[in-house]
Amino acid sequence: MPEDWSNALVVVAHPDDMEYGGSGAIARWTAQGKNIAYLLACRGEAGIDTMEPSVCGPLRVEEQIASCAAVGVSDVEFLDHPDGLIEYGVPLRRDIAAAIRRHRPECVIVSNFRETWPGGSWNQSDHVAVGRAAVDAVRDAGNRWLFQDLGLEPWNGVRYVAAASSPLATHAVDITDSFDASVASLRAHKAYLAALSGDMADPEGFLRGVAEAVGQRFGGVLATSFELLSL
User: Fold this and answer.
1) Separation between Cα atoms, residue 99 and residue 79, nearest integer Å
2) Quick one: pLDDT at residue 179?
3) 10-residue block means of pLDDT along the chain (231 residues)?
4) Does this entry carry the keyword Zinc (predicted)?
């Protein structure tokens, strides 16, 4: 994965999306001195079956902020698209393009937006909508004739768009030294994890299994994978 950049914007649908695999790379990059900000399309208010959205949303916001702190990120922004019902379209593209123009990243990082995950399980519609909207918003942000009402200068400086944990992964990042930080970032989602069962409820076990599997393909180290897109 190219690392010749200084500023990045992570764009994901929900709290915890980047933590299930990608945050080890974020921790590596912030340790290198890179500036990384997060934009979340929703507050995760519909993510815990046993908790009312009015309670769940603020709690998950707090957990995401703590999770980002664990990997060296303090700039975290939340939009108010409805959890579970996020729609691809101009409003979402507009919101993401605005963030790109504000943050002026060289690299935009999204979570997997393909129809399936590695291994074949079906992806969730919010992930698909937000990832695709973010890719399109990179172009939107650079077109001065789009979203002129935002009052923000166009930004054509995005050089890389990378999708974490894609089944079409082309690149990887060695997270051997940042693996513990990735585990800590996922553990910060305490309420969410408490409502889960199975492998995904065990941060260290789940993340190590993924990192080892990726490493077998990309050099034998603990690693996280990305699909590097050509725009």
Assistant:
1) 10
2) 98
3) 97 98 96 98 97 98 98 98 98 98 98 96 98 98 98 98 97 97 98 93 96 91 96 82
4) yes
Q: What is the CA 217 to chain-centroid distance, rounded?
A: 22
b/e 153-173 (16+ beta carbons within 10 angstroms → b) = ebbeebebbbbbbbbebebbb
pLDDT in the model for residue 230:
85
What is the reported pLDDT for 142?
A: 98
Could you tell me if 214 and 172 are in contact, meaning their C-beta atoms sit under 8 angstroms apart?
yes
H or E, element range at 138? helix 125-142
Cα 40 to chain centroid distance, Å, stands at: 8
**Dihedrals phi, psi of 140, to nearest 5 degrees:** -55, -40
The neighbour count for residue 142, using CB atoms within 10 Å, is 17
Q: Is 132 helix (H, G, I), strand (E, B) or coil?
A: helix
DSSP-assigned letter for residue 121: P
For 214, the enclosing helix (H) or strand (E) is: helix 203-217
Segment holding 109, helix H or strand E? strand 107-111
